[in-house]
C-alpha cells in the first residue's frame, strides 16, 4: 500500500467522524494500521481515543497517564503518520482501516 496516496485532509462533520470511529473501534484491522505505520500498542490506544474525539485531558485520565505523556504520544503518532493535526491523524487511521477492510 502506498502511504502517499492516502488523503490527509478530507472534511468530516461530527456525525461522520463518530460513525467512522465506531467502525475503527470494532474492526479487527487496527493491527494493520499498527503495522503499516509502526505504532506501538499504546499509540494505537491513544489514536483510537483521538478518533473518538476525546480531548488530551480525557485521554490522559482514561489511560492513567500524565497530560505531557499524552501530548508526547500524539506528537509521535502524528510524526509516524506524517500529519499535522489530530483531525488528520484520525482521518488517516480511518482511511487506512477502510483500505484494509476492502482488501479483506
Structural descriptors:
104 residues; mainly alpha; Arc Repressor Mutant, subunit A; 6 helices; 70% helix; disordered N terminus
Could you describe the 3D structure shown?
The chain is mainly α. The chain has one domain: Orthogonal Bundle (Arc Repressor Mutant, subunit A). 70% of the residues lie in helices and 0% in strands. It has 6 helices and no strands. The chain has helices spanning 14-26, 30-37, 41-51, 56-63, 67-81, 86-103. Helix 3 packs across helix 5. The protein is globular, with a radius of gyration of 13 Å.
- End-to-end C-alpha gap: 14 Å
CATH architect. name: Orthogonal Bundle
Number of domains: 1
Q: What name is given to the CATH topology?
A: Arc Repressor Mutant, subunit A
In summary, what is this structure?
This protein has 104 residues and is an all-alpha fold. The chain is built from 6 helices and no strands. It has one domain: Winged helix-like DNA-binding domain superfamily/Winged helix DNA-binding domain (Arc Repressor Mutant, subunit A), CATH 1.10.10.10.
